[in-house]
């Protein structure tokens, strides 16, 4: 949960980009880091393996200004998508306030998306959190690949697979070109901050 | 387990006073109290320290989580104290209660033994407050 510091009048909000391996979570943060450089005061932190895959997480702090007199510090994290790194994913999910699920639109990855979402549900449950009630945005990434002749799933099919019961906000996107990366980010920030409003009204007491 | 930590202003001021008295006055460069989700609760420094404490907190929480998982593998619940030694600066990590971690960054002129003593004193005082 978000950490409210009534002395500094500051709120730290944790938003995690989750999804299957090679789905574009890190690319989302890299795009945000490049596009919104003026709002990002420090370097993006990334812990990668030798072959450039996320080992632990990426971390990007992002200032969105003040709400109700509090400085809101958004902290974006990604998880390592590879199946074997579940222990690390659980560590990163600790204290999460909002989630972007980055699904891979490639037809080949249909099963991986479903498994990763299920894994997210299980990992959240271990922290007594419910995927149905946490602020969530789903991003259908790699839509640009369709134009290159690579088979991708239609949005309707992805929606049926992943979002038929969750009914979360979703965006077709391309993290490589930047299409809807900012829209996804803005949506999750707004959902998460709204969910924290009650706590902010109480002044962190 | 997730976190339910919230600190009120007077708790934060008391924690700052303890860290100032026990550690900053000892000559450490920077001291950061974080939770295991990687949030910064309190950070103080000697006025000459410009570290990116938010990134440091995220990595420290993850590092502590990874080391705890290693501890479990060898049958320990956790390693409550970690220490990374650098050529000029070092980092000392100490767990406070179940969910907090105290990071102390210090130079060669601070004795590790004395620092550990002071960290333990600060640790005990903070535990009484939270």
Please characterize this protein's 3D structure:
- The complex is a heterodimer of chains A (205) and B (130).
- Chain A is built from 5 helices and 8 strands.
- The longest helix of chain A has 21 residues.
- Chain A starts with a strand and ends with a helix.
- The model of chain A has no long low-confidence stretch (mean pLDDT 92).
- Chain B has 130 residues and is of the alpha+beta class.
- In chain B, β1 and β2 form a beta hairpin.
- In chain B, α1 runs antiparallel to α3.
- The mean pLDDT of chain B is 90.
- Chains A and B meet through β1, β4, β5 and α2 of A and α1 and α2 of B.
Element layout with pairings:
The complex is a heterodimer of chains A (205) and B (130).
Chain A: E1 3-5, E2 10-18, H1 25-35, E3 45-48, E4 54-67, E5 70-78, H2 86-93, E6 98-104, H3 110-125, E7 136-141, H4 155-162, E8 169-172, H5 181-201
Parallel strand pairs in A: 2-5, 2-6, 6-7, 7-8
Antiparallel strand pairs in A: 1-2, 3-4, 4-5
Chain B: H1 9-24, E1 30-35, E2 40-45, H2 53-73, E3 81-84, E4 89-96, E5 100-107, H3 112-129
Antiparallel strand pairs in B: 1-2, 1-5, 3-4, 4-5
The top-level CATH class of chain A is: Alpha Beta
Which ranges of chain B are low-confidence, i.e. pLDDT below 50, for 5 or more consecutive residues?
Answer: none
The percentage of residues in β strands of chain A lies in 25-35%
Q: Total domains of chain B, how many?
A: 1
Proportion of helical residues of chain A: 25-40%
Percent of residues of chain B in beta strands?
15-25%
Span from first to last CA of chain A? 14 Å
SS element count, helices of chain B: 3
Helix content of chain B: 40-55%
Q: Tell me the CATH superfamily of chain A.
A: P-loop containing nucleotide triphosphate hydrolases
Full CATH superfamily name of chain B: Dynein light chain 2a, cytoplasmic
Return the CATH topology of chain A.
Answer: Rossmann fold
How many individual β-strands of chain B? Answer: 5
User: Could you tell me which chain pair has the largest interface and how many residues each side has?
Assistant: A-B, 31 and 28 residues
Average predicted confidence as pLDDT of chain A: 92
